Amino acid sequence: MKIKSVRNLFLILLGLLSIGAIGGGAVLIISPSGELIGIPLSEYRNLPFNSYLIPGIILFSVLGIIPALLIIALIKKPTSKFAERFNVFIDMHWSWTYSIYVAFALIGWIHIQLIFLQGVVHWLHTFYMFYAILIITVALLPGIRNHYRKKNL
Question: What percent of the residues of the chain are helix, what percent strand, and what percent coil, each to the nearest 5?
């Protein structure tokens, strides 16, 4: 597979995550009772919130807006001293590293849901867990790593 095809797959994976999270987060923000999605708050045990507003904002921003911005950064590869501060892979462009962070944030999001559902697993939990693993796997492909490797170290 050519690097352009793999990179496009990488961008599409982040884009689909972003679209889903923006949509899901917006629904939770608009209907914090869970009425629009058909999941009453009573389904969750020990939820630290009395509505879905805060989870909706987190979903919308962390798994929605951030991946959308990362797509732009992955295409343009801008420099950012601030973003570089949190880049643990110093030989890689910060946007590549942050795409890994987003995938782990998705894994964390699913785990937190499962903790509050206390054993109730929906097929979407499994799907998004594998989706996060797919994002990480594609990001770690040699062609993608070479494309986002800093050239002048």
Answer: 70, 0, 30
Other residues' Cβ atoms within 10 Å of the Cβ of residue 34: 19
CA angle, 79 then 84 then 87, to 5°? 130
Q: Letter for the amino acid at 129?
A: M
Give the pLDDT confidence of 38-74 residue by residue, as tens digits: 888 777 767 788 899 999 999 999 999 999 999 999 9
Cα separation, 83 vs 51, whole angstroms: 32
Whole-prediction pTM value? 0.91
Start-to-end Cα distance in the chain: 28
Three state DSSP letters for 30-65: HCCCCCCCCCCHHHCCCCCCCCCHHHHHHHHHHHHH
Report the share of the chain in percent with pLDDT over 70. Answer: 97
Cβ pair 132, 20 in contact under 8 A: no
Pick from 20, 48, 52, 35: nearest CA to 127: 20
